[in-house]
Structures are given as C-alpha cells and as structure tokens.
Design a protein that fits this description.
- The chain is of the alpha/beta class and about 240 residues long.
- It has 8 helices and 10 strands.
- Strands 5-6-8-7 form a 4-stranded mixed beta sheet.
- Strand 9 and strand 10 form a beta hairpin.
Length: about 240
C-alpha cells in the first residue's frame, strides 16, 4: 500500500463520514482493534496489515487499543492451538485455511475485545450450534448463502445476558467451500461457551456470475469472499451497500 493509496482511502473515509453514508469516523477512536498476520503470508501479508494499523492510528485509535500480532512461519490461515481433521499446515495457504499454529487466535482476539476470559470448553455441545435461514435478512443479494450459523451457549439460551460477536469467514471459508469447519474449528465457540458470548457466523457463497466491480473490472466471486471490491454495487463500503 503506497502513501498515495492510503491518502485516497482516507479521503473517501472523510467524505463518507461527512456525508453520513457511514457512521461518523470519530467513533473509530473508541474501538479496540486486533490485527493478525503471518510473516509467511503471501496472500495479504504484513505490508497490508501494517498499512491498516497506520490507518487506524491516523483516525485516532490509541496505540494501546491496537493489538498487532505478526506471527513467524505462518501463512494465510486462521491460527489455532489444536488439531482438527482436514486442517492444513501453518506454513501452507491451502483449504480450509485453518491451522494449528500453536497460537489461539480466537482467544487472543476475544481477550483483546472483552478482557480476561474464563477457561474454554474444548467440547461445546453440538446442540448449541444453530443453522438458520439468513435469507430474510439479506434480501436478494446473490452473494449471500441461504443459511447462516449461530453458536448459542446454554447460559444464553436460558436467559443470561450475553454479548454478540460476529465472526466473518475468509475467502474460501464459506459453508459451500469447507462445510462447518470455520464455524466449529476456529475456537470461537470454545471460548464463547464459557463466557456468555453468542457468536454469529454469517455466510457468503460461491458466485460464478461475472459482474462489473467498483474498482477491478468485471469479475466473478468464486471464492465466496465478502464484498470488498464492489461485486454487488458501488456502495459496497457504505451503509447503502447490499451486504
């Protein structure tokens, strides 16, 4: 990311904020930010995440509110500290992009956001995973799957006041790509179960239709990515965006 590119993005953010097409950018300063990258990540990599950190700092987020982790010998994967069938090596960016890297990414993120956590439950009940019809909330967006997932701890189902954490899967990590692995193998539910946190796992889907994007020409979305290039309209980065 060049300085001129960062300036262009900042100008857009300033413009959107002034126009009210996004929430006021001043609210960013109150957020806690967790950024993770692997030094062996050639898909996104440290240059992009360092630029992201700079953008947050430039918008008033105190450095103490940002946890920026650069993990050695780690590729473009979601890091865990436990094994699951079908997961790839920590140094290999291959499906399902979830790996035992000896680092509990879910714990690190949730701790940064919410503070010290109770010990995790390594065997959350299967009945706590709920598949639901998300089409009622996504209108006719062709990039969204019919169903999404929730993890609801028994305490929350029984009426306890609980937090809601939204976990967006990465490209090639939707249910039509890897089944329920992102939902069940990333570790979010293990920590949510004992800490009164409901986790929402919305689902994008494979979309092979080629569409005119806001910035990258005409492209399909075969990897079930979230809309970060304008596949589904030029308002993708604003409140009016379809997703």
């Amino acid at each position: 990311i060049s300085a001129s590119q960062q300036t262009t993005m900042q100008n857009s953010l300033n413009s959107f904020s002034s126009a009210g097409t996004i929430d006021n950018k001043s609210h960013i300063a109150n957020q806690k930010i967790y950024i993770f990258t692997g030094t062996s990540d050639t898909t996104v990599g440290p240059n992009q995440t360092t630029a992201l950190q700079t953008q947050y700092l430039n918008n008033g987020v105190p450095s103490g509110s940002i946890s920026y982790v650069q993990r050695a010998s780690t590729a473009h994967v979601f890091p865990t500290d436990f094994d699951n069938t079908g997961n790839n090596s920590c140094t290999s960016a291959t499906s399902p992009y979830i790996s035992n890297c000896g680092y509990d990414g879910a714990k690190a993120a949730l701790t940064h956001f919410y503070g010290v956590l109770n010990a995790r439950n390594n065997a959350p009940a299967a009945s706590n995973y709920i598949e639901f019809d998300q089409s009622a909330y996504t209108a006719s967006n062709p990039g969204m799957a019919t169903n999404g997932w929730l993890y609801v701890p028994a305490s929350c189902a029984s009426g306890a006041q609980c937090k809601l954490h939204v976990a967006l899967h990465g490209c090639q990590q939707s249910t039509d790509k890897i089944g329920d692995r992102f939902v069940k193998n990333t570790g979010y539910s293990r920590w949510a179960d004992t800490n009164n946190i409901i986790v929402l796992f919305p689902q994008a889907k494979v979309d092979n239709s080629s569409r005119s994007t806001a910035a990258s020409g005409s492209l399909p979305n075969p990897n079930a990515c979230w809309d970060w290039v304008g596949w589904y309209g030029s308002n993708f980065a604003r409140k009016a965006g379809t997703q």
